[in-house]
């Protein structure tokens, strides 16, 4: 069963960007291919984080990732932001190289969100 099989009204996810996340990722990073259906947004974005950590090395591809994140933050609504934080940012927080790169290259709004949730992530990790 896919997320979109549930009533969107029940899920309260009124965010077009959220539901088309795979399209937006592929627009910016055409090298990314997902095994998931396009409405399986959470596993898609987690899979994208794994792709970033394991396959994105050159600067041009890194810039494409930043371009996607900046756009997602600007055009998405709170559900997209939550999706990014949970499935993309959290895996990247533990990689110092990527963390530094994103802090130095994301737009002001995106880096604010990235850093804000990193503080919460650190607190959560400290309590374990």
Describe the protein.
- The chain is mainly α and 128 residues long.
- It has a domain at 40-119.
- Helix content is 73%, strand content 0%.
- It has eight helices and no strands.
- The chain has helices spanning 8-11, 16-19, 21-28, 41-55, 59-75, 78-93, 96-105, 108-126.
- 23% of the residues are buried.
Question: In terms of topology, how is this protein built?
Answer:
Layout: H1 8-11, H2 16-19, H3 21-28, H4 41-55, H5 59-75, H6 78-93, H7 96-105, H8 108-126
Helix pairs in contact: 3-5, 4-6, 6-8
Task: Summarize model confidence as the mean pLDDT.
Answer: 90
Number of strands: 0
Give the CA-based shape: globular
* Largest sheet: number of strands, sense, barrel closure: none
First-last Cα distance: 33 Å
H/E series, N to C?
Answer: HHHHHHHH
The rounded Rg comes to 14 Å
Fraction of residues in H or I helices: over 70%
Helix/strand/pairing category: mainly alpha
Number of helices: 8
The fraction of residues assigned to DSSP E strands is: under 5%
Low-confidence stretches at least 5 residues in length (pLDDT < 50)? Answer: 6-10
Features of the shown structure:
128 residues; 73% helix; globular
Concise structural overview:
With 128 residues, this protein is mainly alpha-helical. The protein has a domain at 40-119.
């Amino acid at each position: 069963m896919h997320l979109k099989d549930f009533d969107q009204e029940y899920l309260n996810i009124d965010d077009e960007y959220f539901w088309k996340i795979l399209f937006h990722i592929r627009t910016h990073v055409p090298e990314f291919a997902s095994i998931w259906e396009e409405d399986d947004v959470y596993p898609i974005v987690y899979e994208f984080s794994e792709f970033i950590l394991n396959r994105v090395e050159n600067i041009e591809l890194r810039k494409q990732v930043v371009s996607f994140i900046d756009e997602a933050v600007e055009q998405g609504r709170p559900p997209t932001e939550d999706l990014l934080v949970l499935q993309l940012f959290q895996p990247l927080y533990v990689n110092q190289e990527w963390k530094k790169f994103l802090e130095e290259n994301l737009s002001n709004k995106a880096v604010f969100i990235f850093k804000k949730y990193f503080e919460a992530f650190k607190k959560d990790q400290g309590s374990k």
